[in-house]
Amino acid sequence: MLKQKEDWLLYLINLQPLLMKRKKKKKGIQNKHELRHRQNEFFKKLKHTMAILGDDSAFDLLDKKRRLMIYCTRIRPFKVINPAEGKRASKAALQMLNDNLTQLLQHTWVELNSQQIRINLYDFSIYAETLFLFWDNVVNEEPDIGERFHACFPIFEKDEFNEQRLKMLCMVERRLELLSWLFSDFTSSTIRFAKEKLKENRPPFDLSPFFNNYIVEQKKTETELLEIDGHRRTIFRVCLNAKQAFIPFTLTPEQLGLQGMMQKLPLKVFIQKHVIVRMEERLGKTFVHLSYLYIITSLLQAPLPAGKPNSLLFPMNEGNIRLGYLQADIIGDKLVVRTFLFVTNNGTPEGKKLQKLAGLAKLDKAYLGIDRLNTFITSDIKDHQQLRALFNQAGCGGLFQLNYSWMIKANKKQGACADRLACYLGLQQATGRQTANKHEAV
Predict the structure, then answer these.
(1) CB 3.0–4.6 Å: which of 45, 74, 129, 321 could bond 398 by disulfide?
(2) Which residues, at least 6 apart from 194, have a Cβ–Cβ distance to it below 8 Å?
(3) Are the C-beta atoms of residues 79 and 98 closer than 8 Å to each other?
């Protein structure tokens, strides 16, 4: 029995190299098929782009050798990569960044020249640019087909097209900047993207000039412990992801509209995690992913006095619609963003008007659910004429204009709370008395 086991092991050991060779051969064939499929898909898309920009009969002018050359020198998609040294993002994080970048570019449509040719930014940066690169050199390098190929794309002959190419690159970089804002986190790190630099001494057949790689750079958030209201709290330094460097965010008292001798002394801007928690509670989880963008944009606006010394309210808007305020306090040489107030909350100008008009205190608003955006999006309050008039008078009417239908789950019924809210405020009783008085008058 032991002899049989030894013979079997020897057989497996001898068979292993043969299995590996077969596996490598199979893998090589699979890779070949995948490469052929990628080439076919590229040429299919290239021919489609030819039809959009000019005449797709130009594709028939390309023999196998020329097509292969175009494929090897094609412009690669914009891609986020890790730096060679320093802090590196995980594989999953890079995949997420690249997937979101691709979606942003694919959903950005542009019109070319006066012919109003529509193409998305992703296809332009890959297929239109590759086509232009070949077109620009075809007369000198491929004289037998040069003139005919040129004639298929008159759009390339205009100076306007070169100007649009530069505009497209600017649009891509703005999308990259937006992506960095979306994925920066005040409590962990700020990120930005820098164009990968080409090596000075490149080998003759180096293809790196045809790649559009951007390196993701990360700066870990600085933290401090600060005594606030008798407790030591962790505060996080706000950092801006500028194109050339990370810049710690500062604001001067003069920018905040404050008077005094220290007007031009920069205040270091910090934020508490409590702000993000309150944004999630009052606006929803989606706004947490966009918190960096909303908060930085808010801090660049002129603040309002919060009603107590050295305390300010920074408006947070969606377009022209007020969502709420960031409440910040000046503590020493720092401006600390403490919390987020929804527009109806006590402490905001609109919240104070609402309290004055309807007598609603903080607990009333929490009980009725009108201290959260979700109530205004998913309930029937917007369809109640008297309630709508009340919120308009208080300055919160913009909430009814928000188009956030994506916050409502499919097949979910609209929440019915308008009657309960109107009854709580005595609006329905007032309406009944007014109707009775009209009958008596008649």
Answers:
(1) 321
(2) 214, 215, 217
(3) yes
Q: What is the DSSP letter of 77?
A: P
Q: Which residue do the tokens 């530069």 mark?
A: 166
Q: Where are the domains of the chain?
A: 38-197+208-219, 222-342, 347-442
Distance between the two ends of the chain, CA-based, in angstroms? 113
Sole residue written with tokens 């308009």: 392
Rounded distance between C-alpha atoms, residue 272 and residue 294, angstroms:
15
Amino acid at residue number 4: Q
Question: For the residues 229-251, what does the mean pLDDT come to?
Answer: 90
Cα angle 74-75-78, degrees, rounded to a multiple of 5: 145
Q: Greater confidence, 87 or 131?
A: 131
Do the Cβ atoms of 439 and 405 come closer than 8 Å?
Answer: no
Report the 10 Å Cβ neighbour count for 227. Answer: 9
Dist. CA 19–CA 2, nearest whole Å: 25
Q: How many degrees, rounded to 5, is the angle at CA 327 between CA 323 and CA 330? A: 155
Burial class (CB in 10 A: 0-12, 13-18, 19+), 387: buried
Ramachandran angles phi, psi of 32, nearest 5°: -65, -45
- Return the ∠ at Cα 288 (arms to 283 and 291), rounded to 5°: 100
Which residues are bridge partners to 247 per DSSP? 240
Which DSSP string corresponds to 257-298?
T--STTTTSPEEEEE-HHHHHHHHHHH-HHHHHTHHHHHHHH
Which residues, 6 or more positions from 419, have their beta carbon under 8 angstroms from its beta carbon? 384, 428
Is pLDDT at 104 greater than 90 in this prediction? yes
DSSP states of 356-391: HHH---HHHHHHHTTTSHHHHHHBSGGG-HHHHHHH
∠ CA(338), CA(290), CA(99), 5° rounding?
Answer: 150
* DSSP string for 127-178: IIHHHHHHHHHHHHH-HHHHHHHHHT-GGGGSHHHHHHHHHHHHHHHHHHHH
**Beta partners for residue 267, in sequence order:** 251
128 or 409, which is more confident? Answer: 128
